[in-house]
Design a protein that fits this description.
The structure is a single chain. This protein is mostly helical. Helix content is 64%, strand content 0%. The protein is globular, with a radius of gyration of 17 Å. The model is unreliable at 9-14 (pLDDT under 50).
């Protein structure tokens, strides 16, 4: 009985959490992967299933990159993420991240949860450990 309740709860959580829109090579990888990782966390997607959730959310070029690197059948989410990060991600300087954080405004049509997720991602880059500071205040 408890297994049934647990399975129903997992299905309900997964249905309520929404994946991000598809990622294209023109998108902001850092923002997109932050949204994707929040989605799999909220949906309680097991690590071994994350690649299966990720691949359908990639447009042609990013998907082609994963296939060309023989990672499309890999259960290793970190390897797939690192491959995409090396091509589409950027680290940026501390000043660039600070400027992005200070200038960031909510886009028209952007849901509040997405806006807050982006602010958190920027805050993590600009103020490492800020969540610990908030929790201990």
């Amino acid at each position: 009985m408890s297994e049934v309740v647990t399975m129903e709860a997992a299905i309900t959580v997964r249905m309520s959490a929404r994946p991000p829109a598809k990622f294209s090579e023109k998108g902001d990888w850092n923002l997109w992967v932050t949204r994707f990782e929040r989605y799999v966390q909220e949906a309680k997607v097991p690590d071994r299933e994350r690649v299966k959730e990720l691949l359908p959310l990639l447009e042609d070029e990013p998907l082609r990159l994963v296939v060309q690197n023989d990672l499309s059948e890999s259960p290793d989410y970190k390897a797939v993420r690192d491959c995409l990060q090396s091509r589409y991600g950027h680290e940026g300087t501390e000043m660039e991240w600070q400027a992005k954080f200070q200038r960031h405004v909510q886009n028209s049509g952007e849901q509040l949860v997405e806006y807050v997720g982006h602010l958190r991602m920027l805050a993590d880059r600009v103020y490492p450990g800020w969540t610990k500071d908030v929790a201990t205040s």
